[in-house]
Design brief:
This protein is of the alpha/beta class and 231 residues long. The protein has seven helices and ten strands. The strands form two sheets. It has a six-stranded mixed beta sheet, sandwiched between helices. The protein has a four-stranded antiparallel beta sheet with strand order 2-1-4-5, covered by helices on one side. Helix 3 packs across helix 4. The longest helix is centred in the last third of the chain and has 18 residues. It is globular.
Length: 231
């Protein structure tokens, strides 16, 4: 593994399988790569290449068969399920293609959740969430539930929720996949701008090559292997 302390993600020869015996599918084939603190990285490739699987491993929400993975200098395979949950809450924020906002909660309440899970005081979490939604131009939608908001508004609220806890890493899986081109560009710009402002590492899986061109580095994956990587 790298001795560089600024590598927030360091993967060495990662293998990931699904199924058993003759039905085994080798999804990731010896993936080795590093992502440095403050970098913005896009992971691109055809459907089924293993992009989302790799993102889930980096985000500590999936396991792997062999190899070694360090996130924030921690060998994540050594952590228990309970410890992984706490580790994710402190260090990783997630944005998905579908916003995954809780439908029964308002935008404000959804944004507050990461802080409440950390047992922050309600008043402090509410203040922080209000300020974050304001940064995303959502102050007027704070008391609206997802069903009362547009797709672009819901996705901005999801990014606000991912960032509010000041994680070290943002993992975004096709974050603009359900948005039109105007909303896609707007959301991508906000996500990367906030990443730079707060010094976050941003890792994005995307089919959108325009979005990929906005990140500092692009990693291409084909058939579970890194095909190329460049700035």
């Amino acid at each position: 593994m790298s001795q560089n302390s600024e590598a927030v993600i360091a993967a060495e020869n990662i293998e990931k399988y699904y199924g058993y015996g003759n039905n085994t599918i080798r999804v990731l084939r010896g993936i080795s790569m590093e992502i440095m603190r403050g970098e913005s990285v896009s992971i691109v490739g055809p459907s089924g290449a293993g992009k989302s699987t790799l993102l889930n491993l980096f985000g500590c929400i999936d396991s792997f068969e062999s190899g070694r993975l360090e996130v924030m200098g921690k060998d994540v395979s050594s952590l228990s399920v309970e410890d992984l949950s706490g580790f994710r809450n402190r260090h990783v924020g997630f944005v998905f293609q579908t916003h995954n906002l809780l439908p029964e909660f308002t935008a404000l309440e959804n944004c507050m959740l990461p802080l409440l899970i950390r047992r922050e005081k309600w008043s402090r979490a509410k203040k922080a969430a209000s300020e974050m939604l304001d940064r995303f131009g959502l102050s007027s939608r704070a008391d609206h539930k997802p069903s009362e908001m547009s797709g672009g508004e819901c996705q901005r609220a999801a990014v606000a929720r991912a960032i509010i806890g000041r994680p070290d890493i943002i993992m975004a899986d096709e974050p603009t996949g359900n948005l039109d081109s105007s909303n896609s560009k707007n959301l991508a710009g906000i996500l990367l701008e906030m990443g730079r402002e707060f010094g976050l590492t941003v890792v994005i899986v995307t089919h959108d090559m325009e979005l990929a061109s906005m990140t500092g580095k692009t990693v291409s994956i084909i058939d579970g292997q890194i095909s190329e990587s460049g700035s």
